[in-house]
Amino acid sequence: DETEFRNFIVWLEDQKIRHYKIEDRGNLRNIHSDDWPKSFEKYMKDVNCPFKIQERQETVDWLLGLAVRLEYGDNADKYKDSTPDGAKNADNTAKNAEPLINLDVNNPDFKAGVMALANLLQIQRHDDYLVMLKVSFLERLTQDAIAKASQSKEGLPVALEKHILGFDTGDAVLNEAAQILRLLHIEELRELQTKINEAIVAVQAIIADPKTDHRLGKVGR
Fold it and tell me: At what angle do helices 108-121 and 56-74 cross, to 10 degrees?
């Protein structure tokens, strides 16, 4: 129901997500306005939702996952030691050792993450999210990419906390991922600059006058 859907979005923002200041929620709260879809689309962009306004099921899953993360962040001490009733006697050590074995495919965060990747890679959707993750994504990997990923590359450990990201996503995990991606990007830029410098030197060696002494800024004798 359209009215219930809009009320649900307003409730999530008012009670859990709270991305906007109270005085800035007027357009979103005006659920009977003809401009509400535009306000909702702007809201999705503001909270960095990866889905389009037409993808309601995926959007709902994603917003619920965001709400849960924020709820946990506000009450971490309350929830950190909580366990599901049916899992109190489970072997937590074995669970932690093989997290993919105990992956909850019905988890809204998992579904939203898979759909975001599918949209990014332009992969055809499948009703089974786990199948989409295991099969569809693997089909997009080329042999070159697999070979490159298999190559071991030694390097020095990096302390992420010493590198300023410059912005805040509102999620500690996303912040850390963004820092890693930025460092990798800087490394690639450095490799590119090195290759450019080598190319310039090679060209100069071919076209330069042997009598040129670039250190003195003179050409010829």
Answer: 130
Identify the bridge partners of residue 213 per DSSP, sorted by sequence position: 218
Rounded to an integer, what distance in angstroms lies between the CA atom of residue 46 and that of residue 20? Answer: 9
Digit-coded pLDDT (tens) for 57-113:
899 999 999 998 888 877 777 767 666 665 555 555 555 544 555 666 677 777 777
Break the chain into its structural domains and give their ranges.
2-81, 108-148, 161-208
- Which one has a higher pLDDT value, 172 or 151? 172
The overall pTM is greater than 0.90: no
**What are the backbone dihedrals phi and psi of residue 218, each rounded to the nearest 5 degrees, phi first?**
-120, 150
CB 43 within 8 A of CB 8: no
Q: Is the pLDDT of residue 158 over 70?
A: no
**Dihedral, CA atoms, 199, 201, 206, 209, nearest 10 degrees?**
150
CA distance 17 to 60: 13
Helix (H, G, I), strand (E, B) or coil at 129: helix
From CA 21, how far away is CA 13, in angstroms rounded? 10
Exposure class string for 94-126: b at 16+ Cβ within 10 A, else e: eeeeeeeeeeeeeebebbbbbbebbeeeebeee
Cα torsion angle, 193, 140, 148, 176, sign: positive
